[in-house]
Input
Amino acid sequence: MRWTVNSVRGVALAAAGLTVLLSSLGDPSPVLAEQKTAQTLYEEALAAEKSLASSKNLQAEKAVWLKVARQYHVVVLSYPRSGYCDDALYHEGELYRKAGARFGDRDAMVQALDAYHLLLKGYPDSKWGPAARLARADLYLNSLSNEKAAREEMSALLTGWPNSTEAADARRLLANLDRPEKVERPAEPTRRTTPSGLVEVRNIRQWTGKEYTRIVIDTADEVEFNRGRLTHPDRIYFDLFNTHLSESLASEVFQVGDGFLKQIRVGQNKPDVVRVVLDFESISRYNVFYLPDPHRLVVDILGIKPEPGSPADVSSPGLPPRTASASGDPSDAEASATSPPPPGEVSAEPQPASADLPPAPVAMLPLPPEPTSDGRFPLSRQLGLEARRVIIDPGHGGHDPGATSHNGLQEKDLVLDISRRVAKFLETQGNYEVILTRNDDVFIPLEERTAIANSQGADLFVSIHANASRNRRARGLETYYLNLATSPEAEETAARENAVSTRRMTELEELLSQIMNNSKIAESREFAHHVHQSMVKRAVESDRHSRDLGVKTAPFYVLLGANMPSVLIEVSFLSNSDDATLLSSGDFRHKIAESIVEGITTYTTTLKGVARVATSPMTRDIDGGR
Output
């Protein structure tokens, strides 16, 4: 059975003039795209932007703004060393910035920051450098309410381009920030009773399962917080300092009633302190961590569950235990899986000669599961746990296209296709229940994807992506599990998938060292190796030049807080023309999907051990195979 946890959300496009523009932005054939020069791609993007600027109907559609911005990005992916790249990145950033302001889209603002960041880091001598710095400062200051980051950008602008026009603007902005406000103060100070200068607490989101709840508190900017636990009644609270509630959240109560968490209460505890209270029946443990860009406080709560090893704990929720006879007939499962007769039990029938003895009664005795590659037995193997419920997570989606190839193939569409194939192949085996985090072109926040896996009681989590690099020669497959990044390349990949700047990665690694679920690292590493080896084998069959980039570690948001073995797969590079051509082939996607399924089934087999047929003491044990 396959489940989806979202519904289709479409974007209505304006009719007037839209067909012409979208046809100019459509997917060109691979042959034509190969023949286009950097200049041609850039001029086509300029023409598309000009069409957008001249049509009020088109300007009313956010999807069109984002589509034109992506067209500029194709220039950079196709010709990263071209002299047009810095121009393309600046125009891309401006389009995202304007779209963010027009539609109130915070994600578009973050994409604008990333485009400017790539321009500054990849093309430091560009004429657009000072303008990009000032644009980043403006976004941080006026749109994202982050004065500290804005000051850092303006400081970098004054250091790098002290005589530019933009530097003069930065000096005026800094002078205004440093000028004390003239406030008419009444007899009693009113500073603490006004939201001026306070960070807004915008929203509270939740995902609930039988033994797990994830709560996300969205804030307008980074905040400091304190937490505590109180009794009579039992509750956990979080005080967010220098904050105020949005009007929609004022004195809100969220009923949960999942058996361990009763409700979530939020209120303005003090003039500059918002308090969030979690009323609960019983909690075994909880984790708290803060994620930036956009800013949110994430709380993972686990209820008290059955003791490890008990029948209710070993079997996945909602799935009956699987048994099978040696003959493979499920109807014989009870008889074939029974223990040998009790000692001393003798048949009443006369014993025939030894030559005429019938086959001795047999029993399927489970062997211990295989150790991990380092020779150890993590707790999950000691307890004999199985993996039946699999979450497949197609990366990106909706307004977030991910990487884009030279021929217009978008990562969000590619990985959705592969994920659907993986789900179908797993379902046909009859041993797995498959849940897709998305089954359509919709956007799902990174923290929600892991929450879906945890709340659904998943046994495995597989996030599927396609890679991209500023180096067009980079190609091949790589597989990640959650840990600290061990190379600049891994850090850059994580920064791209997390949709944050590499500056934020250091903060994330500090966070990761605090909340790492060490019990899952060993199994995630083992899981990653099985899936990766299977993928590389199939990829080489299709193209002997395909490269094995190995199993790596990096701090991915989408894997944070997962309660099960979890991996993130990068199925080749869309920025490489050879890899992109392969990924455009349905046959290659089919093989990649099959290889992922093969890796999943191989890994789950190692958890169960090998069945062995036990016969009479006079008969040698026979290995029943896998």
In short: The chain has 20 helices and 20 strands. Residues 18 and 58 are 7 Å apart (CA to CA). The chain has three domains: 14-177, 195-302, 385-608. The longest strand covers residues 199-208.
